[in-house]
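A further point concerns the way the authors explain their paired sequence and structure data. An entry of this sort, consisting of the sequence and the corresponding backbone structure tokens, reads as follows:
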Amino acid sequence: MTLAALIVVLVLILRPAPAPVIQVDPQAMVRAEAKVRESRAAASSGQPTPLRLDEAELNAFLASSLGLEGSSNAAAGRGPSIEEVRSNVKDVKVTMQDDRVQAYVLFDFHGKDLTLVLEGRLAAKDGYLRFVPTGGKLGSLPIPQSTLEGAVARMLESPENRDKLRLPEGVGDVRIENGQLVVAPKE
């Protein structure tokens, strides 16, 4: 029985979750860069306005800034840092609906492609980006909520990652609103 259960779990983990269909727009990166420049200019002139990115703009921005051609680095004996995870990432797709974000991540784990799907809400707390998970899957295996919450908390609180999640000065909130990423200035 135990062997059969182990085999089922392994098969579910190795069976990739389907990639979400995302909106692709060749001009999305240009629009995202323009919106970031406009937001910075408004903030420096003393009239900060929220930065709003749609799904296509956010995915183009992530693909550009993550440099998804990284090589595989395994972390031994401790939880991986964001840099180590990023180096194993082959693809990231983000979908946004209402006030939730869903991230699909395809990554290399010892030569095998695995998928991780995380769904949750973004927020800012005490000057740091927070992610509150509402669901997740490793491959096709659902991750229990308590396990998911614990893993996300450990990753967000680890000393290696904490500084990387500090929000830039002037950012008061980060959230998903009506299917868009909103980066709001401090009030």
